[in-house]
Design a protein that fits this description.
Elements (H helix, E strand, L loop, with lengths): L15 H9 L4 E4 L2 H10 L8 H15 L7 H5 L8 E4 L3 H11 L4 H4 L5 H17 L3 H10 L1 H6 L10
Parallel strand pairs: 1-2
Helix pairs in contact: 3-8
Length: 165
């Protein structure tokens, strides 16, 4: 898009006509991850100041949808999947398969560009970790998290998410 060389980089800085032209001229890829897994990863990376996962989750819930960090805010509030028609939605846990498909569609040699990803091992690890972390939460926190991420859970197929159970 012709105006991308300007200093403005956020879509909100452009008018509707420019936004439509920009979005129409790119292949749009959205990478999504189970919101509970995002919370775990954020906590483990030390982005929360809390000593326990339960207190970290309480901080997230207390911060609300609009005041929280982009690391844990619901995806639908960040990427607007109802407004932007993404060409591809890539689910964490299926990265090797989906990235290979994207690279082939772009005419690139998928095999040589992809790192070694063991998706099944990642899924097993996150399942185990999710069970451990989920058990630390109170029933009220579990219910509040499910409400906090309800639009993500409705928009994306996180069928095995602890938050959708």
């Amino acid at each position: 898009y012709r105006r991308l060389r300007t200093k403005e980089t956020r879509l909100s800085k452009f008018n509707q006509t420019e936004i439509k032209a920009m979005l129409g001229s790119y292949t749009k890829v959205l990478f999504v991850r189970d919101p509970f897994h995002r919370l775990i990863a954020t906590f483990l990376q030390g982005m929360g100041l809390s000593p326990s996962f339960s207190s970290f989750v309480q901080e997230v819930l207390d911060s609300g949808m609009h005041n929280g960090s982009v690391a844990w805010r619901p995806l639908v509030s960040l990427c607007r999947p109802c407004l932007v028609q993404y060409d591809y939605v890539v689910m964490f846990g299926f990265l090797r398969q989906e990235l290979g498909h994207l690279l082939r569609r772009a005419g690139l040699p998928a095999g040589s560009l992809l790192p070694e990803l063991t998706d099944s091992q990642v899924q097993w690890t996150y399942r185990w970790l999710s069970e451990q972390m989920f058990s630390e939460l109170s029933a009220q926190q579990k219910e509040q998290l499910s409400r906090f991420y309800r639009w993500d859970l409705a928009a994306f197929p996180f069928s095995s998410s602890f938050l959708s159970e």
